[in-house]
Design a protein that fits this description.
Blueprint: H1 2-21, H2 27-36, E1 40-42, H3 46-58, E2 63-72, E3 75-84, H4 87-96, H5 98-103, H6 113-123, E4 126-127, E5 130-134, H7 140-149
Antiparallel strand pairs: 1-2, 2-3, 3-5, 4-5
Helix pairs in contact: 4-6
């Protein structure tokens, strides 16, 4: 009986370890939500996203940048998705980056980082470890609604 208990305990510990090591990214949900609304992921916007990626790297943040486009009339709407390695990295980025704070003027920084994160989620700028914003301020309302639904 002691052997069985030890084996079960070992299996439980290994399963817990496996779950904690696996990254839980919400990017796939965000991607599906944008694709459902007619956006397509763009691989040709590297130059446009380079500036934002350099800003994140300057702040020592590991981030993957994704760009989505959608034709609207004569122009294209461009949405950038910062996919952080962890939610804590996203919180740190908002707290330390004036660029990110500039995009979300309706969410103010305060001393409680968790409250700021919750406000970003409620406003539709954040979903899990993904920070989303539009380069076209005219469609920001549409973008935040998509993020809230993701």
């Amino acid at each position: 009986m002691k052997k069985l208990t030890k084996v079960l305990a070992l299996v439980l510990v290994l399963a817990t370890l496996a779950f904690t090591l696996v990254s839980c990214s919400t990017y796939s949900n965000v991607k599906k939500a944008f694709e459902k609304e007619g956006y397509t992921e763009s691989t040709t916007l590297e130059d446009a996203t380079k500036k934002y990626k350099e800003e994140a790297e300057k702040d020592n943040l590991a981030v993957t940048l994704h760009a989505f486009t959608k034709k609207s009339g004569l122009s294209s709407d461009i949405v950038l998705v910062y996919e952080f390695n962890a939610t804590d990295d996203l919180k740190k980025a908002f707290d330390e980056s004036e660029t990110i704070k500039g995009f979300v003027k309706d969410v103010t920084s305060n001393e409680d980082v968790n409250a700021v994160y919750d406000a970003l989620v409620e406003a539709g700028y954040v979903n899990g470890n993904c920070f989303v914003f539009s380069l076209n301020p005219l469609n920001m309302n549409e973008v935040t609604n998509i993020v809230k639904k993701a």
